[in-house]
């Protein structure tokens, strides 16, 4: 039936030509490249139906789906289609055949590949001599714990027996505290090798890239990978350099930068010639001598055209400089002979790594056999062993393979772009081996391959995509028509990807075959659906690009970081859409209708911001359904039960015990805890608790007696729980805890009580599942949960909002794949690409093998081996290609409207970053620009600036602007939001919502008594607490929080108190909402400017003023402070002693030394300020005061003068101007006014002078 000519497509058919061919074509292997929204599932189901109608039984078709949900949906759709075909069929025999399929569909081979593999193993286990009785290991954490147990045993064995090579191997990949780094390497290497059909062979092949020769230029890794890549990039840089040179030629005022450019292009040409001639040592020596001059432009008086010409070359010059520096520190950072030495030593490590990974594989396999368990990867490897057998050096089909090849008339694979090499091998032994008469049907879209973390290999799809286009091995069918989205969405997507995606960066050309074609024409024409780009200006906020000290952060806003800013922009936009009656098209009703919340989705790169989104949108009264918050173990009630389980397992754990004692389970207060500790100040807290419990109560106060009763009751409960933990199952223990404490009822009365109760029930169910694993008991469960949290394998909170409710959806781009929504917001688009894999000690590639960093044992200096450098560049391209595909998936989820949300420092900075692409003449952006991008928004921005809409913005920043697109191709808008604009938008939306939602009072047909009752009820319900403002005002303020109030010394009208949405949240607030992260929880080890500033103040506080300090004096003091741990060593190294010494040579520095006996330094102060002096709208008649606390750097008090001074370490450019100084003075005006107010109050005399000292510039500024 499906071979030769296709049946003629009826005129009234709703299928496109490509869909028709996909349904009916046959007689060869077929690859259907189905773009987003092209109806691939419909096509797949219809092909199956036509196969059945042609006489094929459903169990003669193997249909492999990517998920169980997809398999279930496929069966349901096939069942529905078969039932419909039965009602329409007139032929009795055909009808009988169709009816027969109904009973076969439930057991038909329509499943994930893993599920099919399980069936194969159950049937043919005897071919490979394995026990058919086994449990499937599905829990990732259980698997991880099992691996750790196996590795611990193997590692101890290797330490004992193989120390001559195992110790140095471990040291190369471990830190100075433990060998966790090496353990992670073994796990990763094992997992990566298992995606290969022959893991042992792949491990043995790792040595290929490490084969050394006498000369570096003769090694395979250099000859085949490094050299060609360097020559290509240098050639591109030379071409760009000549382009920049031509821009400056002929202008006398640009002679100096022109000469610099010419010299640097000449350096690149020399490097190219030396590499071409294999003179690597000469090139290494030459690069050591290269130094760069300052690239200065024309003077201030130069013509604007001259300035623009210079500015247009800066990016190219910087890129060339950066590349040369990369070569100096990278490949040519060490001599060629050193590279050879590292290659040989790395080969030793690679050989041993391969052996250890193989030993771990064998030990882990043995442990699983002992426990009679298999994991998903085992299913695939065992199936492959069943399907093929070795014949000499070749593989041939086994009995099982022959059976399946005979049974299956066709093998159909959905989402083919997401399979790996191992799965491809399995499919080979299930389908016909004949290329010319194949029966392999593959459907997918490589542009949506975003599962590399599951070891998917999109190159399998790409290879067939290119080969089948030429008729080699099969035929290619392209489904380009998109029936999901408006033309606005499709045009924008094509506009972006035409410029971004090609083979070199993206692994696939975005050509006419790949472009989306508008297929659904029924959308009504309107201008409301152009894509909107929303940019939050985060200048000065957390996560912005400038490093600012704590003193510099203004508290005059609600928004704490860029994430909250973006979420508020989204929330305000959603409210605006709803309030303005925005409409979307209902495809089923075939008419426009008002936008519902369920029509909207917010796509995020990760789940980490889900709770923040939930909080802020809830505040804005926007209903939300979060698909997977992945913060279950952060819920307070769950943390409490886990702390109690820890105590039951081992009460000698202070932190869990303190958490339980302070919780409602025991109910101790802070003073109670202190009383207990005072009875036994040394040792762990449990001993102190027991000691207090046994004390004689004769001298106890009533309060202490009550405390002891509480402790006795808890001890009795704890003893009972511990006994239960030894005798009963874990689920019995947890349920007993719930009963004894009444915890479920208690949390039900708290805010979000329904959700909290669901969380506790989920913990009980999780424990029940755990009991069915290979681990048992309370200790193992606690370890199990700790491991989940360490590996960020958190569970999703059970949602208290149903999927069908009218609520905005939040999910990751990965989770959105296959879904569609009328309105799509994609946020956090300028989140940096996750390239951490490129910075690890090791890196893997399916074809190239493994690259490692080599650490010199004695010096601990780290070197990148040449295979590491090679694989890293290949991996970088693959990671960026996947990021590009993630962007494609995100854009194509939208049916009608796209909102793209990101953050930049400010508008000027945004245009500057995007303008890098404005001079590119080719349609596709250069490799250098695309590979150099750091985020999805960088890519998007560089495509947007080449559109007519942004022409005016770009012509201000670049000289040779290249417009490539106009409004006929696509239309979009870019809008910027600063703090004030967000506040204004939010206030307007709140006002509009209040006016819409305010109910009218109904008085018709009411008696006087009823009206009086109604009035009384309204009075009660609308009662406003007269002291609400006082209740919302902080009682304590630090100087850094309140300083903005005092910026203007003449300002007596202070900032008002404002509230948002009636939720009692202070909009203009002066209290920190977010506590500083403790040092032991800090994620960054970088020294910040704030750290340096703090340490500098410590040095100035302790430095003797008895004589003019020398540089040596200051350095000795810093060394002393580092030794006694007053400041960190890395911070101490950053303090510039010479800068500090030069300050004391200034007139004011000399004055300090001369009057050192009158100097007071680092003076803390506290003062009370009436609240009405801080807040304009504070109610009259309320005598509330605020406690303000701070520390004054220093003051000089003589009989004539009281001089206040303050040190700052702020950065100023070398060529600073008065405006820069005024900006700094303005920044600290409020702080110093408050210091002055406090000092005058303390000394009962006026401050005569206030001085702001800029240490970096040795400037002393007079403050008014």
UniProtKB/TrEMBL annotation:
ATP binds at residues 34-41. Its cofactor is Mg(2+). Its EC number is 3.1.-.-, 5.6.2.4. One of its GO terms (cellular component) is DNA helicase complex. It catalyses: Couples ATP hydrolysis with the unwinding of duplex DNA by translocating in the 3'-5' direction; ATP + H2O = ADP + phosphate + H(+). It comes from the Bacteria. InterPro entries: AddA (IPR014152), DNA_helicase_UvrD-like_C (IPR014017), DNA_helicase_UvrD/REP (IPR000212), P-loop_NTPase (IPR027417), PDDEXK-like_dom_sf (IPR011604), PDDEXK_AddAB-type (IPR038726), Restrct_endonuc-II-like (IPR011335), UvrD-like_ATP-bd (IPR014016). The keyword tRNA-binding does not apply. GO terms for molecular function: 3'-5' DNA helicase activity; 3'-5' exonuclease activity; ATP binding; ATP hydrolysis activity; double-stranded DNA binding. The keyword Transcription regulation does not apply. PANTHER family: ATP-DEPENDENT HELICASE_NUCLEASE SUBUNIT A (PTHR11070:SF48), UVRD / RECB / PCRA DNA HELICASE FAMILY MEMBER (PTHR11070). The heterodimer acts as both an ATP-dependent DNA helicase and an ATP-dependent, dual-direction single-stranded exonuclease. Recognizes the chi site generating a DNA molecule suitable for the initiation of homologous recombination. The AddA nuclease domain is required for chi fragment generation; this subunit has the helicase and 3' -> 5' nuclease activities. Belongs to the helicase family. AddA subfamily. Heterodimer of AddA and AddB/RexB. This is ATP-dependent helicase/nuclease subunit A. The lineage of its organism: Bacteria, Bacillati, Bacillota, Bacilli, Lactobacillales.
